[in-house]
Amino acid sequence: MGGAKNCPETPRQRMIGMMYLVLTAMLALNVSAAILNGYLQVDESLHATIETTESGNIDGYEKFANALSQNQEKTQEWYDKAMRVKEESDNLYNYIADFKDAIVSLADGKDAVKGATVRQIKKRDDTNIPHQYGINEGHAAELKKRIGEYREFLKEIADDESVNEDIEKMFSTENGTNAEGKEISWEQTVFEEMPVCASITVLTKIQNDIRTYEGKTVQVLYSKTDASDVRVNKMGAYIIPSSEYVIRGSKYRAQIILAGIDSTKTPEYFINGEKINENGIYEVVASGIGEKKYKGQIAYQHLGETVYLPFEGKYTVGEPTATISNTDLNIMYRGYNNPFSISVPGVSNEKLQVRCQGASIMKQNGLWIIKPGNGGGDKMTIEVLAEVDGKVSVMGSQVYRVKRLPKPDAYFEINGNLSEDTKIARSALINPSNKIVASYGADGLIQAKFTITGFQVKLPTGASFNIKGDRLDAKSLDAIKKLKQGNMVNLQYIKAVGPDGKEIQLRGLPIELN
After folding, report:
1. Which of 2, 29, 312, 366 is deepest in the core (most CB within 10 A)?
2. CA gyration radius for the chain?
3. What is the pLDDT of residue 36?
4. Of all residues in the chain, what percent are helix, strand and coil, respectively (each to 5)?
């Protein structure tokens, strides 16, 4: 909303501005002092305009105060800013009034009139006094600083592009030029070799601008008090449910809102023909399984008429349930990280809890890792809980059998791959990088980590070697190198330790040299 469009300059203000510019231009051209009498007319017109503007500003503040009394919630913020505008405007206006009195006092001495107009000044053609007080004594620099601060204050508080452009121009303190076209400071354009009547008229014009843009800024602030009123030509009703999936016995809760509604004007809400609470909260105890639909409307006042907006909503009622599935097998193994995918329809994973007595539980990569301890019986119950409407409830449970991990088989691993063949080349068998591993095979339903701790090598020559670890040692390798193709090498008494820390003995692994 552009403030300049709402409070444009009047013809009188434009005329005064034009007269001021003409007189200033003529003065710059050293026109006869008689021309300076024109400042009398400009100054008097400015004073008359100031009185009119101040009267209008008083009406504006009274209008603001009245709006505050009717709707404090919507108006307080902007009213406080308007009061700041009044305070800052009065401060600068009064400072300039004192500035003018000081110049007149220096010019007329004991005959000086406080708050004098140009007509009341006796030595209005004196060109030394403004220069002395404004430039030599440094008061012009202080005035320039205060005008700049006031300008930036108005721009910040109005926050209106079109008004701010006018404020920037009206309170500009940029450098100017003299009669020879040379650049001079703002202070020099107003006070250097200027007659008293000219400087006083310039200062009166600044006072007039202060009152004018005080009023314009307050009007902009007032226009913002109803910026949140319904002004769009298309409205919509929206439903914001806490969840569209409801467990039987719990409550379905939804927030029904009107887009763009003024929070100080409370609409009325109706569901299936019945009025609900003034906050638009629809709450009903869910009963029966399946999808539930409802209809309603919002009634609000706009431009003195009642407007009705219809809406529709739905939610789903389901049985309390939890989905529990073991991603490996339908049993749990002791000492093993059993991964489970656990979910409850309509409830986020962050709202879930899992309990299983006698087991450790943690979340990892979206799965629940349940690791039964070594004690306890052969069954465990996984219980799933969910937080719904701020209350934690049991959603379901399931009993699982608990067993120890089955024994894996022993394989000879060649270049990182399990050898399923009992015939192995001599070169592969004696390669020190190859080793014995315990595994459930490439197609095993579970993959647990086992560590080979030792085994015995039995050769057809009758020699045998007891090995620690999972690789053949130097003595056994030298002996195998002497064997012929077709000879059998038996790897037996193979021992391994699984995830549960228990050492087990695996079946032997006979190998035929190929």
Report:
1. 2
2. 47
3. 64
4. 40, 30, 30
Tokens read off for 301: 């006042």
Banded model confidence at residue 277, pLDDT cuts 50, 70, 90: confident
**What tokens does 139 get?**
């008061």
Residue the block writes with tokens 């791959």? 417
**Closest to 205 measured CA to CA, from 244, 147, 132, 157:** 147
> What is the C-alpha to C-alpha distance for residues 274 and 278, in angstroms, rounded to an integer?
12
Residue 357 Cα to chain centre, angstroms: 42
Q: Token digits for 422?
A: 């009992």
Residue for token digits 């009642």?
306
Of the candidates 246, 250, 255, the one whose C-alpha atom is nearest the C-alpha of residue 292 is 246
Asked whether residue 26 carries a pLDDT value surpassing 70, the answer given is no
Alpha carbon distance 187, 210 (integer Å) = 18
Nearest alpha-carbon partner for 46 in 189, 217, 197, 207? 207
Q: In angstroms, what CA-CA distances link 238 with 259, 269, 271, 313?
A: 7, 12, 13, 9
The long-range contacts involving 40-45, CB below 8 angstroms and separated by at least 24 positions, are: 40/118, 40/119, 40/197, 42/16, 42/201, 42/205, 43/117, 43/118, 43/119, 43/197, 43/200, 43/201, 43/204, 44/117, 44/118, 44/119, 45/12, 45/15, 45/16, 45/19
Phi and psi, residue 150, nearest 5°: -65, -40
Residue 456 dihedral angles phi and psi, to the nearest 5° = -120, 140
Contacts of residue 359, Cβ cutoff 8 Å, sequence gap at least 6: 332, 370, 371, 372, 373, 380
pTM: 0.45
- The pLDDT of residue 264: 56
Highest mean pLDDT among 4-18, 382-396, 488-502: 488-502
